[in-house]
Amino acid sequence: MQDEVFYMRRALELARLAEGETSPNPMVGCVLTDEAGNIVGEGYHHKAGQPHAEVNALADMRKRKLTAQTAYVSLEPCSHFGRTGPCCDALIQAGIKKVVAALEDPNPKVSGQGFARLRAAGVEVKVGVCEAEARQLNERFLGWMTRQRPFVALKYAMTLDGKITTRTRDSHYVTGAEAHKYSHYLRKIYDCILVGIHTVQDDDPELTTRLVEGKNPVRIILDSRARISLTAQVLQGGAKTIIAVGPQAPAEKVALLRQMPEVEVLELPEVKDDQAAGTLNGGRNNSVDILHGGRNNSADILHGRLDLKVLMEELNQRKLTSILVEGGSQIHGSFLAAGLVDRVYAFIAPKLVGGQAALSPIGGLGLALMREALPLQVDVFKQLGEDYLISGVVKTQA
How far apart are CA 198 and CA 222, in angstroms? Predict the structure, then answer.
């Protein structure tokens, strides 16, 4: 068992080399060993549409002119024809006698069928080695597959007294350079980044990964009235941008936006006040409405609330598997109210701002009782320069 953990952790290490590059596919690594336990081949899935981990590991084995007996794979070998052939067939044809996998692939096109085909061919199959580590590695893919919507993470930077802005709404330089760079790393590993129109109007951000190597996320702007400036940086190329507007957006402005390269205008329905009402705990106490209050009374979420669940459906159809929400106090509250949050990244700066008018990360009225607080299962705690990152999954959504 100790050797199996060693080889599987190597497979997971290989898989992570492609972090941010494989969507909508999962990250997968594969290690091949011979009868004596020597590693004779390694590989990982580099990018969607390219050979899978098992195929790359077998190619590495053949290049070394060796043979393998056991394959250690971080996810169930696929059993279907897509842009590549079935990996389980490739392993069978290579004479592999045993396959050790971390977990089953929830993709309905696989979902145990790969294991069944291997067993039918006489291959011994063992599942569950380093399962927790494998689930964490591919939590965005697994969440997308099991919930049939993108995996959603809230990200914010706040002071030690829980403020994301000052009383004048200044939100620049809450945290330092290392935390800022890590934020760009998060943008790289998520398919999309989402903000509200006020973030665009106040900060004119690029929302790219310019501080790290890797692809830029698809940029999503919640802008129910299409108020975005045509000169905004998010409209100037570098990545696709989706502007989500409501039924009352001016047709002339929408037409101009649609003429811009790499810009898609997505028309969403609005929700009524009673439909939008919700709670931080996803409906456990329907008397608590967190959607009222926030940045100012012109916020999208107050005047023309866009239906976030319809947005999720649209993004799911586009095979966008994950969203990093950097939307500010009110938008964070809206995603929580809709029960759409899976993970939280909280960057904490050891400084104090104070002031009742300064915003906290989650807007609105909030919960009435502390015992109703939404719990997180914290799995990341690290120091980044002078700042700290605490991250965890939302237990009721996990």
Answer: 9
pLDDT tens per residue across all 398 residues of the chain:
669 999 999 999 999 999 999 999 999 999 999 999 999 999 999 998 899 999 999 999 999 999 999 999 999 998 866 666 789 999 999 999 999 999 999 998 888 889 999 999 999 999 999 999 999 999 999 999 999 999 999 999 999 999 999 999 888 889 999 999 999 999 999 999 999 998 899 889 999 998 998 899 999 999 999 999 999 999 998 899 999 999 999 999 999 999 999 999 999 999 875 444 444 444 433 323 333 333 333 334 433 589 999 999 999 999 999 999 998 899 999 999 888 999 999 999 999 999 999 999 998 778 889 998 889 999 999 999 999 999 999 987 44
Show the beta-strand stretches assigned E in 25-123. Answer: 29-33, 39-44, 70-73, 98-101
Token code pair at residue 240 = 């696709």
Distant-in-sequence, close-in-space partners of 62: CB < 8 Å, separation ≥ 6: 41
Tokens representing residue 208 in the block: 């790219």
Sorted by sequence, the CB contacts under 8 Å of residue 152 that are 6+ apart come out as 312, 322, 323, 325, 335, 340, 341, 342, 343
CA distance 369 to 376: 17
d(CA 391, CA 341): 13
- Is 264 catalytic? The answer is no
| Size (the chain), residues | 398
Cβ-contact 79, 108 below 8 angstroms: no
CA 182 to CA 346: how far, in whole Å? 12
Q: Which residues contact 229 (CB under 8 A, 6 or more apart)?
A: 200, 201
351: how many CB neighbours lie within 10 A of its CB? 15
Name the pTM for this structure: 0.89
Q: Residue 145 phi/psi, 5° resolution?
A: -65, -45
Among 307, 283, 280, residue whose Cα is nearest residue 376: 280
Sheet arrangement for strand 70-73: 39-44, 29-33, 70-73, 98-101, 124-127
Q: Which of 4, 13, 35, 54 is catalytic?
A: 54
